[in-house]
Amino acid sequence: MSDQDGGAPGAGETTAADAWPGQAAMASLPAPPTPAGFPALLAHKALVYLRPDKIPAVLPHVDSVWSGMILAGDGSARALRRLQAARVTFPVLTDPEGYKDHTATCEAPFRLPTKDGMFPVTLGAVLDAQLQSGAAAALTPTGYINAAETDVLKAAVTEFAALQRQDSIFLAPLDISLLGRGYFDQTAAILSGLQAPVALLLGCQGNPLDHSKDIIPNLRRLAARVPLIPVRTDFNGLDLLAHGALAAAIGTGGSVRHAVDPAEKHQAFNPGPAPSVLWPQLLTYFKGSTIAELFGARPQLAPSCPCAPCHGRLLTRFLGRDQQDEAIAHGVATWSPLAAQLLSAPSVRDRAEIWKACCEDAVVSHQAVLDMLLRLEGLRPQPSLSRWAALPAWPASLPAPVA
Ligand SMILES: [Zn+2]
Q1: Residue 196 domain-assigned?
Q2: Mean residue pLDDT across the chain
Q3: How close is the Cα of 309 to the center of ligand 1, in Å?
Q4: Whole-prediction pTM value?
Q5: Which residue from 260, 250, 248, 242 is spatially nearest to 391, judged by alpha carbons?
Q6: Which end of the chain is less crowded, N or C, counting CB atoms within 10 A of the terminal residue's CB?
Q7: What is the CATH number of the domain that holds 59?
Q8: Residue 396 binned pLDDT confidence (cut-offs 50, 70, 90)
């Protein structure tokens, strides 16, 4: 079988079979190919994925060259029109979140509203409505595609492809197991058959990347094969941009960094009043109170942040619910320059090398903080960060870059 990890490799291992032909081709490009139609407006950008009420916090920190917004939730269309009226120069989309309360079936892969409570609205009309509100491109209202349901994914792709729309993007909200060892080849074949950009949304409780060790390498392969736009992500969005994704949309908080099966209750990531805070040196989001507790006995060692919202203040200050917007602004202002650095690298191979070095530094920084605090434990790198740092930037079997 051509899939990887036939034995039980360690975190840093890959085999020659890991390299897909598409990865060799992608590594040498200055950037992934720009697609036809409206999705070209998103190409080579790291967008912010957010609820409309977070726009005021995020707007000052959206990079007009390398970023944009995907809005989701109540009031998104109205907020989009306001952004248009304010003449923002970056692309804005709205996600109809069809996967939130609709499980896709072969007969009804998309969540389509009814008009006057009776007549179903067509898929084309749902897409038109987004564009009429000013969206840079429309996103399909795809329902949640459950484990093992590759036939449902195929039905959704087929129905969308029949519309032949270059102003819209197929959104694939996939149960994470569809990207695991058992189904990845089928999933990749269906998505690449569309021959158009795919907005990929990972579904599961908790961190989708922790589902199995196959997920990160498989997602990287997919990014080399399909014009991929991972949306509603954490730093997985940056990992995939570094490996050939067309664009990515990074969520401002835990609830907008993945999807959950509509039949299940969403398990809260961050109970308690302290907001989730990005610790830049560790490339990881922590509950604000966790950072404060770590430095409780040694406040003089607490890290400060040079970003615009923080203005040199300490990262230990995020303790209250009313600081969530400030924490979100800090997060976007902090990862945006890193995204710009990746996207402006000379080649996709360079993006991956830069990203791997950042992740290695972040892993090392975990231990450096413990050493500084004279502690033996209490700060372990997240498994996904360790994997990004340990995996080769590109499969080792790829030829060396031309100098
Ligand atoms: Zn900051």
Answers
A1: yes
A2: 92
A3: 6
A4: 0.93
A5: 242
A6: C
A7: 3.20.20
A8: low
Confirm whether 398 is domain-assigned.
no
Q: How far is CA 29 from CA 304, 346, 349, in A?
A: 37, 9, 8
Going from the Cα of 312 to the center of ligand 1, the distance in angstroms, rounded, reads 7
The Å distance, Cα 374 to ligand 1 centre, comes to 25
Tell me the per-residue pLDDT of 354-375, one tens digit each, with 9 for 90 and over. Answer: 999 999 999 999 999 999 999 9
92 and 57 both lie in a single domain:
yes
Q: How far apart are CA 60 and CA 48, in angstroms?
A: 12
- Do 251 and 286 lie in one domain? The reply is no
What spacing in Å lies between the alpha carbon of 153 and ligand 1's midpoint?
Answer: 40
Is 307 inside any structural domain? Answer: yes
Same domain? 201 vs 305: no
High-pLDDT (> 90) share of the chain, %:
84
Among 192, 223, 256, the domain boundary falls at 256
Q: CB–CB of 55/75 below 8 Å?
A: no
195 C-alpha vs ligand 1 centroid, how far in Å?
A: 40
Q: Is residue 395 part of a domain?
A: no
Q: Are 98 and 142 in contact (CB under 8 A)?
A: yes
